[in-house]
Amino acid sequence: MAAPSLGRAARRASSTVAAPLDDRAPGRSAAAAVVPPAAAAVIALLAAAAPAFAAPPGSKERDVQLVYCLDSAHRGDLVTAAVRLGLLRPDVSTPDSVMPTAPPVGRMSPETWAVRHEGDFSRACSALMAADADAPGAPAEKKEDGWFEAFLTSLPLLAVGALLTLGGQMSERLSTERRLLKQQLDAGATAFRTAARAYLTAYEADPQADHTAVVGAREALLGALAQVAGPGARRKRAQELADGLPLAQPLPGARAGTLLGTAARARDAQEVRGAVERELRAVAGLNGRALHWRWRTVRARLRRPAPEAAP
Fold first, then answer.
1. In whole angstroms, what is the distance from residue 95 CA to residue 80 CA?
2. What is the pLDDT along the chain (311 residues), one digit of tens a residue?
3. What is the number of alpha carbons within 13 Å of residue 4 lying toward its C-beta?
4. Which of 54, 128, 296, 305 is exposed most, by the fewest CB atoms within 10 A?
5. Do 73 and 43 sit in the same domain of this protein?
């Protein structure tokens, strides 16, 4: 049963191929133009096996190619592209009827060619779509916006940039102020510690020791403490330290009408030294980060008792 079927396929292929060959050589006889049965059988087998190598239908790319390239507005360009690629015969191919250069040959419509020669059609259509500025998926030219639309589009970016700049400037200003305050407090504390130690050492030997240097250093430190800014808890702490700063007055040389001896003055001087060191360590703590002092301010407000209602 297979042999008669193959013979019939060969005869059909022979009759199909004969016509194009007659067109190429009009002067030749029909007998000379007929393809031998063996070649016709090979052509028939290739035609039967071609669908097995075709891409599966229904894919997105395939659908786009069929819709775009088989449109009446693009058929002429499709045929031109296929002719230039050597896929269609240039002398007999038109937008309505084409003749492939590869088997199965013969006149057919572009739709039939797209099915029977799926690979050639896909190649020509892809080339056309890549070269055509109107191809689906090609980036469309952006319409130039007016200056007002461009301004509105860039307005959020400008606002963000302005906020970042303002925030950076504010942060830099606060950092500079904090650094200057730290320098003033450190310098004042160092000067006061030096003057206090010198005075207390001299006081142990002489109750009438000069207190002038301590007064000047203490006033400088009080001025630095007065410049401490908020949050409220830090400002309050600076005021407390200023009020409790030792050596506002010279140490006494007598107590209850009795002159203080060397040992008593030494004990008093040692107690004042400890008080000075505690105060100066607390002064250094004022340079802590603002977040710490903000938290202490909030905590103090939360602990503040609510006013009692009037009866």
1. 9
2. 333 333 443 344 334 333 333 333 333 333 333 344 444 443 443 344 444 334 456 688 888 888 889 898 889 999 999 999 999 989 888 989 999 998 888 889 999 998 999 889 989 998 888 887 554 454 444 444 577 788 788 888 888 989 999 888 888 887 787 788 889 899 999 999 999 999 999 999 999 999 999 999 999 999 999 988 877 888 888 999 999 999 999 999 998 889 999 999 999 999 999 999 999 999 988 887 777 777 877 877 787 765 554 44
3. 1
4. 305
5. no
CB 245 within 8 A of CB 287: no
Which of 134, 153, 186 lies at the terminal end of a domain, its last residue?
Answer: 134
Tokens at 198, concatenated: 């010198």
Give every CB contact of residue 277 below 8 A, 6+ residues apart in sequence.
193
CA-based nearest residue to 100, from 116, 78, 123: 116
Do 48 and 102 share a structural domain?
A: no
What domain count does the chain have? Answer: 3
Q: What is the CA radius of gyration of the chain?
A: 51
* Cut 0.85: pTM above it: no
**Do 185 and 283 form a contact (C-beta atoms < 8 A)?**
yes
Give the domain range for residue 33: 1-53
Are 74 and 182 in a shared domain? no
Cα–Cα distance, 13 to 121 (Å, whole number) = 22
Kindly state the helix (H) or strand (E) to which residue 258 belongs, with its residue range. strand 258-259
> Is residue 113 a part of any domain in this protein?
yes
Q: Are 70 and 26 in a shared domain?
A: no
